[in-house]
Amino acid sequence: xxxxxxxxxxxxxxxxxxxxxxxxxxxxxxxxxxxxxxxxxxxxxxxxxxxxxxxxxxxxxxxxxxxxxxxxxxxxxxxxxxxxxxxxxxxxxxxxxxxxxxxxxxxxxxxxxxxxxxxxxxxxxxxxxxxxxxxxxxxxxxxxxxxxxxxxxx
Length: 154
Known about the structure:
Blueprint: H1 8-14, H2 17-31, E1 57-62, E2 68-72, H3 75-83, E3 86-92, E4 102-110, E5 113-122, H4 127-143, E6 152-153
């Protein structure tokens, strides 16, 4: 391990993990936009692409019920999803920004492995929103020359 010349104040901060966590969080937030407070925010372009500059934001729309539906997935991830016979879905309510109601994820199962393939932020929990989300994935499959018809969707 290399020795670093730090002030005694900096050394004291390093001994407290909570201080380090807070400091890292402050620094990280200097580089990223604030979490939106309303559904009418604009997604910065850099968050619509993967690190390899492939499209990542699949859909950004207002639902029939007036909520917002964002679906994130690259073509590579969608290809895995559409080739999967078994698709596992999961929704969580506790880890989303307050303006959204749910983060819904789709995981493909191929070659004895489970892959996260699509991530949707839902502005409401209405049946029509879930239907729209599935329809959007089916539309994406058609545009890629395939179908989204897993044997099992759970």
